[in-house]
Batch of 3 targets.
Target 1
Amino acid sequence: MNSFDRSFLKEHIKLIAGTDEAGRGPLAGPVVAASVIFPENTRIRGVKDSKLLTEEEREELLPKILNKALTYSVAAVSHGEIDRINILQASLLAMSTAIKRLKIRPDLILVDGNKIFGGNIPALPIIDGDAKSFSIGAASIIAKVTRDRIMKRLCKKFPQYNWSSNKGYATREHIEAIKVYGPCVLHRKTFLSKILIEQTELEFQEELID
């Protein structure tokens, strides 16, 4: 992963920022992005795509990443904004905002995925970037840990959905809770249409039976 990032270094490219997001798929909560820049040749054993790590492994790696980074930042886009502009645009907005919050301007941005956001810094989309790039992989860990912590805090206000465990993803437990209690203000309404339609149809069938 380090060699992948180093392959982009040139006379005019000395600082590379990796950026990635966490939380595109959940039914509730924000999408969170992170950006990070490391000194050249930085190595941290275990850094890779956050989805391939356990929660405990991510928590253990986070302080190592932050301690070795030249600079890092995070940004979140709310559930309401996701509903308004769609999850792709919200993800790009979160990554773009995270880049803008870096205290050091990078010479090049490596963006996880096949899309890039506008800006005056050169950027490259890297498909499966969190598995190829050290800086993107590290950003994915920062974003994932940050978002998980947000969902754990929010779970205290809405314990019926058990977000401390499912983090807002569409687990069977979460979907059943939505059907029983209905959605709350932090759910992404555009993600719930199929679930709510199925629930309405079920309630209608039960009324006919009664």
Target 2
Amino acid sequence: MAKRIVFTGRNELNLEEFNLPTPGDNQLTVRNICSLVSIGTELIVLNRMFAPGTHWDNWVKYPFHPGYSAMGEVVATGKNVSSLKPGDKVVHRGGHASAEVLDETPWCYPVPDGIKLEAACWFALAKIAAMSVPPARYGLGSSVAVIGAGPVGQMASRWALAAGAEPVILIDTVPMRLEMGRLGGGVNTICATAANAIEEIKKITGGSLPETVIDSTGQAAVFSDALKIVGDHGRLILLGDTGFPGQQCLSPDVIIRGLTITGAHDCHENDNWNGRKIVSLFFKLCQSGRFNVDGLITHRFHPDEYAQAYSIANEHRSEAMGILFDWSAI
């Protein structure tokens, strides 16, 4: 029997056994080695931190099987699978489980040689953050501020650095998160709320405000403060997905200073910018050292310790970044 984590209700969770089906012609069976907790998304789901009628409310139905960033080894393939074979290491958008049967595309991506297994697990968070790149329109010498140094904010700041943006400013109130942001190389950090960061931003930029601001927090109250730190005629990218959009309030900055607001979401793919292209680029940048995710794993748990893992995420959020489940012993 395979095992997987399940949310059975609000603040209720368990590790359940389930029967693994036989893969279909275009499917493969993956035995997972590790999976990464998305502490933003998964806590919103577990704690039911969203308003009725939102897309969160429509999506989250219990029992709910969390997780979307796992790494494992192919152990069986259907007869039409051509890109992967048993023994190949893959990352995939499946959940926290010991094994899964998945479609060959678009769910599974091969892991190239030279990529550390724990680094590979960041692929999904990196992909989500990468959806902010097209609307942000930054490039060499662009000034970028990222609000929130959680997992998605860490990835967003690294994409900006890899693209040659300068300066890249990471804003958070938790020193540990900012220290992890600096592991990406070249980022400027400000330990403050967005509302209190303006003067420090100007010190870094030489007096101006950033052309692009990326709000990765998913906190509705940050929205109006984020608008205040965007430069005139600049862009605010909403990358964090709040459960309470009705609480996001516009400020006069939008009209007075001609700002543009754009939402960036995991599903905003097209032929030129999609999961397969982004994950391939992520791995290439990791191999070259231009996208460093080393040191971002803060906690490792056996799946039997699922309750402790989510307790850490819930009650000690400021001490957690990458929470990893190790499935190799199951």
Target 3
Amino acid sequence: MSKFVLKRIFLAILIILFGSFIVYAVIRALPTSYVETIARQRAQLPGSKSYAEWLEQLNALFRLDTDIFTGYMGWLSDAIKGNFGDSWAYNVPVTQKFKDVIWYSFALNIITFVFQTVIAIPLGITAARKQYSKTDYGITFFALLGISLPSFFLSTILKYIFCIKLGWFDLYGIVGRYHEQLDTFGKILDMTKHLILPVFVLTMLNVGGLMRFTRTNMLEVLNSDYIRTARAKGLPEKTVIHKHAFRNTLIPLVSYMSYLIPSMFSGSMITETLWQIPGIGYISFGAMTQGDIPFTMFYNVFLITLTQVSLLIADIMYAVVDPRVRVN
């Protein structure tokens, strides 16, 4: 097992390096850069240097005057030391900005993950147990509805109904106007109120896929010979479903759910932007639109690393979920 884990860690590092290089090369190839905006702004100051001089100085500072491979190696040497540079758009160290905003995204996505797991897996099991019934069709329709609805459309509908017409929630933000005047419990309630609709949007978007995946795998397991044998022995249906069938359904579920966490952090960018929640997705979107190479690089490497860590955990969990799985 230790050899397998070391091999997976080595492969994960290679993938992170290759992925970060591709991202760096793509960003460097973009036609616009935030450096040009900075140079143009500083050149307009009284008594300042010319635009060309500022552009040359800033390009040398951020290693943009070298070829892509040399610039990437310079970025990588700093990144290994934990130095990801200063954000061009937010004018603070990248890691500091990341620490300031990641907890909003973490809370939003973890709450969504819990809700979609609690909703999707039981409904998927119920749909499989009652295949081709009205319950199955209703659950399938609900799942397809969640998969098909774009986040911007669902968010707009919710804003119109609950924020504009009913006035129950604010249109934007993570806190209300009088947040600082509230006590600790009041501040928690205020933030919770602002997270209700974004969490509902993300849950609706993600619950359908997990629900369909659970139903499909549960149907395959329920048609197995050992399930028919368990029923023939007279075991209670709850024991057959929860002890025998669901345990084997967990194996593909672990693989599927390992992709959910990194996909939520990347997929929540649109939702965070629509609701203006100052999480990592919303901040990264602003950095990307302004050509902020340091923050954009850090955000993409963060997603690549998160994906590899999730896959590594999934591989290890195989042996925990199914005792038959052993790694030589």
